[in-house]
Structures are given as C-alpha cells and as structure tokens.
Predict the 3D structure of the following.
Amino acid sequence: MKQILYILFILLISVGCAQKPATPKGNNNYPVSNPSSRPGSYSNNGRPPLPHQQKGTSQTSKTSDVGNTTNGRVLSPSEIFEKLSSAVFKIHTSTGYQGFQGSGFFISSNGVAVSNYHVFQGTAVGYEDIILSDGSTYKVTEVYHKSKDNDFIIFKVGVSRKVNYIKIANNTPKVGEKIYTIGSPRGLDNTFSSGEISQIRENGKILQISAPIDHGSSGGVLLNSKGEAVGITSGGIDDSGANLNYAWNIQLIKSYIP
C-alpha cells in the first residue's frame, strides 16, 4: 500500500512540473523600466502621455497635397491592399511565461522591418515569432535601433529570400487626407481599414486617425493613398465610440534606417 501511495505522489509531482512555464533563457535585449505595459495594450504605462492626455498639442501639418509629394500615382483601396498586404506581418512575443501579439511591416526587400517598441518590451529574445502572410515564420536577427520615447523599433528579420516591402513617404500627411491601415487586430491577420487624418499632435510626432484599429494592431502600417507608409499604428482610447486612434509619424524613424 505504501508503494502505491508513493507512486501516485511521484505522478502528481510530475504532472505539476509539466505544466510549469519555461524560464526565459539568455539576455533580454528589449529592457524597459516598467514591464507592466504589455504588447498590444492601449495602456500607456511607462510611456509618454497619449495625445488626449495632453493640452495644447494640436498642430497643422505644413506639407504639400497628396499626389504632388512623389511621382507615384494614387491607388484605389483594393490596389493598396493587393500590392502591400504581404509586406505586413504578425508578431508573437513572449516572456517565457506569457505570450503577446502585435504587428509589423517590411521597409526593405532584404528584411529590414519596423514595429512599435512596446510590442517587444519586457519580452525574451529568441521567443519571438515573425509570421508572414504566407504562414512562414522567422526570428529577429538584429536590432538596429529602438526608441521607448517614440515607441518604434527597427530590426532585421532573418528571411532567406527577398520580401515585399512598403516605401516610406517623403512627407507627413495633412489633416483630412485619406489613410489606410493593415495589421492584425485581435490576431485577425492582414485586416484592412480606412479613415482620415483627424489631427496632428505632439509637434508632428502623433497622427490622430479615424481608421478603426484594435489590440494587436500595434506596429501595423498606416498608409497614404499612394501606398506609402506615413505612420506606425499604436493605440487609441478603448471606451470611445468615436474611433480616437493614434499612429506614430513614420518620419521619426528615417534617420535610423540602416
């Protein structure tokens, strides 16, 4: 009888250990002072105040009209999605105990990519998965630059082939311009939405948009009507019915692109 009880005790211990999450290995290359702010979250814990929490930050953009900034032609919404959706990917990150999800997009054919910094903050290197639209999965092989204050990260995805990518716009869009987003809200891959630039805030850093985005859209691309990246979608106000959402101006990353 004692032997049977001993065997049962050992089995119970084994089952309990099998359910224990793995401990992250290696160094964390995405250190943050406040790891409570999670990827995909619209909370701004540990980050600068969102535009609606500040006063006197409205600004009118001094840029030329869409159609005059580059030689590219204006595309229809369906053309934008067809041409560029494969340049946007889903990101899974993990602390080793808990997993999170965000979005990102390529800005070069050799795998240089952009996302929000908070998608990676506090997570373990090597635990991330970069999942392309065709289902292929890769790892981050190098981080070129990261900014907690401006919530962006530029990194290299270890792709073994040329990939589709999105050109960065030369100028900040104007209030009222049509914009489009592609991301993975709630894990729904390559979701396309549209809206307008509602306002430009924080001295041009933040683009307030009416396009609907949701948790998991963080790090997705904000596009103008020529299919150029004008921003990195980041978050919004959860309890608002007015689509008060925000993206970081893509111009912030230009000087850091390798």
